[in-house]
Design a protein that fits this description.
single chain, about 325 residues, alpha+beta, 6-stranded antiparallel sheet, 4-stranded mixed sheet, about 25% helix, about 15% strand
């Protein structure tokens, strides 16, 4: 992408960088699509593969239409415009409605979305890339980024959320619509997957591990489990956890601390971005009038161990069934 556009990116209202040295563009790998060895070399070297216009645009558009129709039905889109445009209703109108940047329910019972993430080009790619039959997590992460500040995603690596199975696991990020830079697309921190200290510290944690020998943690967890419910916010805050999930709450400070550039792009509908479990990523503020919608799905060899939190018709996710105790 043009660096003058990148210089206008913000995180929680603050400029993400002040010079072209702070940003870089994602390298496209369409030229290596039939060369498995080269794809693996680039994944090892860069921590990601960016496949421009790789997915069927009509299928992605159909998934966008389904999601936007649901959002229109929920009353969070401006009714003066077609649902497909994704124009947000005024804040006054949507206050109090069930909205948020993380809305996995939009992925449930959604055949057009399933066609994009569970069939066709994406499965063919992972079968080829992994060298065997690939499988996906049954749970799909779906994000609906509202316009405005303070909706950017905190810097994090995915391994802390899904590291109980194979580490030979990959995230596929798909935008359901064109995402120019000012809409707050995904950013990858350059060479972050090579930071050994990061992998050995933050990258070795698990958000669902708790210190069973600290305070009343064991009693709190066992009570919630016996009652078949998830923890309340008050209960959760009373437990000491192995990880808080995000590496930090500030993408600007993270880049200064860890080095590298934020790698960004002018995304288009049909683009596919794949990255490793240890590639640190974030997003910028959405300065448009539209909702920015995207999905995160995970793929691995079917024969490899799988993280049980994300498998089945009713996966545990980060609920009470996923919690495990440890001695801290």
């Amino acid at each position: 992408m043009e660096m003058e556009k990148a210089l206008k990116l913000t995180y929680q209202g603050e400029p993400l960088g002040h010079s072209s040295d702070d940003f870089g563009g994602l390298r496209k790998s369409n030229d290596a699509i039939d060369d498995r060895d080269e794809l693996h070399r680039r994944m090892t070297e860069n921590g990601y593969l960016f496949l421009k216009n790789y997915l069927n645009r009509d299928e992605v558009l159909a998934a966008r239409q389904e999601v936007m129709d649901r959002l229109m039905g929920a009353g969070v889109l401006d009714e003066r415009y077609p649902a497909i445009d994704g124009i947000a209703a005024s804040k006054k109108k949507i206050d109090g409605r069930a909205t948020g940047s993380f809305m996995p329910l939009l992925a449930r019972n959604n055949p057009p979305l399933d066609k994009v993430i569970h069939e066709g080009p994406i499965m063919s790619f992972f079968d080829f890339f992994l060298g065997g039959t690939a499988r996906y997590f049954d749970y799909t992460w779906f994000r609906v980024k509202q316009p405005g500040l303070h909706t950017a995603t905190n810097p994090h690596c995915d391994i802390v959320y899904m590291g109980r199975g194979t580490k030979n696991l990959y995230t596929a990020w798909i935008p359901y619509g064109d995402v120019p830079s000012y809409m707050g697309g995904l950013m990858l921190l350059e060479n972050s997957h090579k930071l050994h200290d990061l992998k050995a510290s933050y990258g070795s944690t698990d958000v669902d591990l708790y210190c069973e020998n600290k305070d009343d943690a064991q009693e709190i967890i066992e009570r919630a489990r016996a009652e078949g419910r998830n923890l309340t916010n008050q209960e959760r805050s009373a437990v000491k956890w192995n990880s808080t999930g995000s590496y930090s709450s500030n993408a600007i400070a993270t880049r200064k601390e860890l080095g590298g550039r934020w790698l960004v792009s002018e995304y288009e509908m049909g683009d596919l971005l794949i990255f490793s479990m240890y590639t640190l990523h974030s997003s910028s503020d959405n300065h448009s009038k539209q909702y920015r919608i995207s999905s995160d799905t995970r793929y691995q060899l079917a024969a490899d161990p799988v993280d049980e939190r994300w498998i089945g018709d009713d996966p545990p996710a980060h609920g009470i069934r996923a919690k495990r105790g440890m001695v801290c």
